[in-house]
Amino acid sequence: MPFITLHLSGSPDPELSRDLSKRIGALACKLLRKDLRRTSVLVRYVPHADWFIADQSLQELGRNAFRLEVTVTDETNTRDEKAIFQREAFQALSTWIGNVHPHSNIHVIDCRATAYGYGGVTQDRHYQALDLGSAPNGP
């Protein structure tokens, strides 16, 4: 059940938001082994003049940037899976957005199963209720 937050430099663009939410959601679910049916994506825009890297705005730099946060339940992904996701997501977003500053970043946030959940139920409780023989993607 990842919750994905994608901050993009620029002005709101509903078509781009829809396109990137589908693409990054699918990529995260594939590489981090999550269920797309339980994935949420939030896209936010920040004006180039309000995003700073090394004391210069993206407007001054003439660049685009992103910050991608993917919240997952701790211990559900390996170190290698997260490293591969970092690489693949950075390459993909750089291509999809274009002219991306190299200090755009990705943060995979591991939350404890007892501190993270949906529907008013922690991931730990969801896990306890699983029939492990029929749950290919885990909590």
Automatic annotation (TrEMBL):
SUPFAM superfamilies: Tautomerase/MIF. InterPro entries: Tautomerase/MIF_sf (IPR014347). This is 4-oxalocrotonate tautomerase.
